[in-house]
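Reviewers of the previous submission asked for a worked example of the structure-prediction workflow described in the proposal, so we include one complete record here. The input consisted solely of the amino acid sequence. No template or homolog information was supplied to the procedure at any stage.
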Amino acid sequence: MFWSGNRLNTQKMVLVPNHPNTAIDCASLVLTIGSEVYITPNSETDSKVKKTLTVEEPQFIIPKGQFALLITEEEVHVPNQNIAFISFKAKYKYKGLINVSGFHVDPGWRGKLTFSVYNAGPSDVVLEKGNPFALIWYADLDQEGIVGGDYTNNNYVKKDKPITSISSDKVTDMTGDIFSPFKLKKDIEDLKEKYNKDIMELKKEVNAIEGKLLVRTGLLIFAFISVVIFIIREASKISN
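From that input alone, the workflow returned the following structure tokens.
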């Protein structure tokens, strides 16, 4: 059974203990963008490092056709007897931003949530630190993941160290060429421009060669006519 907004409100100190002012949207908690972001390079000149967002520089851009790693400001807790589900707010979905990192949070989870996103929209997406961008719903399981006895060391709940920043492993996984429709279109346009330049250069060379051939042909014709005139004159002298 999914939790109602009333139940979320009474349990906020357990679910987001360090963020008591977390907003509730109907039956979900609202998550905001944290202070770290990583965006895959849009060109060879772009930097390949994480960016720390500040009050002075809170904005960042996810170019069309590029991936990004986002982390929540809130440190989320999912009790052992619950599971959570996450999704972007609709306003970002309409812009073409897609969550490609998963849609649930395991029982026992503690820490910030990292999202891997892809901009499949027709234009760049501008985001800002503190923007409400994701929602999290809670649901009950039929029983708690840890029940004691032989099940104490089971894998029914998350026991990892809480996540507080974007890990270097996740950044490493995002490096490399991004094969997007927009990049493919740009590559095709670059090749088209290159071939057009090559064709123009080739035409110039052909025109230059044709010009030289015309000059040489003209000289040959002139020489031929001169020889014919000379022969005719000489023949006229002999007949006289």
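Helices lie at 5-15, 90-93, 168-173, 181-239. We consider this example representative of the routine output the project will generate in years two and three.
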